[in-house]
Amino acid sequence: MASAFTLWLQVVEETVADDDMIMLKGCKSTRAVTVLLRGANDYMLDEMDRSLHDAFCIVKRVLESGTVVPGTAGWFLAAPAELFAVSCSVWGAPSVWSDYSMRHVVA
Prior knowledge:
alpha+beta
């Protein structure tokens, strides 16, 4: 049983906000991580939990497959740059407006 307690270098009790937590530091196994979520209410915590779960699932799928497939939001990033490129070839008021409004997308 004593060998079970040699899996970490330090056991400390720390205060996080108003809560006392026991922290295990210097763990030999780096495959485990604790994510501490704090929020104003249960609704915010539930949303953070779902968002983290989604992010972890995405990372897991990428690591398993070794590929990344762009999602449907990818065109939101590509379309303004393409429109800006086309507007640069047109002279006149629409071109001036495009240059002014799309400057932040390309820069």
